[in-house]
Fold:
Amino acid sequence: MIESRRSVFDNISFRRKDHPGLWLDKFLPEQLQKDESLAKDEASPVMTHFKSATRVQEPTIYRTSFDRWQRVLQQLDARMEKGEVLGRMVVGLGADSVLENAISLHHTYGLPFIPGSALKGLASSYAHRRLEDDAWHKGGEAHRVLFGDTTSAGYVTFFDALYIPKSANRSFLWPDVITVHHPDYYQKEDGSAPADWDSPTIIPFISATGKYLIALAGPEAWVEKAFEILSLALLEYGVGAKTSSGYGRVKIASPKPSQDIVETFLKRWNAVPTSKLPQTTNSFFEEWKRLEGVSNADKATIARMILERIRNDAPKFEKKKREKAWYKELLTFTETHQED
Structure:
């Protein structure tokens, strides 16, 4: 074995709150020398290193960052859907790395994510290969409008799909392996044939799981079509590496229609007795802020209905609360999006 970690880091030990990306890149303690082999049942230092990184816990501050990201997407009137990884996913396996294999991790928080460029490329490829209409093939008008080309950007923006906090079972990262069964056959040029007695080479890597917030923005009709194509591509093709082995399959949950969300919210709001409005308005406001799957126009409609009922049914309460932050936020939102 040879040392891989700088001597100044010798006394640094693994902690469950470390940044997994930083840990992977900087703290590999040792590695095999050229032509050095492992003893039977001995784990490779890289595998041990990968396993330690998969035990890192989700940082508590990430929830705040994720909520802020959702608010930004809402302000951009982006449509958001949840995508659940069916099994494992590994995006960025072949990226530059100090180790043999990599994975795409958020630079600040170290959590897995799906780059928007990967989602856009996947949807573009699926449309070109699987849709029958020539307009959706590369060079076709529909393909150019949605995805763009070398002369113009597409109508739809594909945002990075961030990991949804606490959505993974046990851990968001898992140790995994690629097993090369016939290394001589693939690496040597001496005519070696694959044989049953070949010793397999086990190559470790890290895969991810959990749910991810997929967001697209643009003209509503084009966003709808983009989600339709992307949903099929994620389920049939998969995203990232090793898709031929079943990795990267993501299922986008069937969204609840926006109109249903609006109607359900307003039905509950209108059912609140007038005498209870002062006690319940703040909880409805907090729920309004967290609404998902609705456009800014629909959110503005709900905000307008909240304000109108307070003015009509509880004028004394409304007069007292005009200077409150929640009242001003609802009012500003309705004025900003009155023409959406």
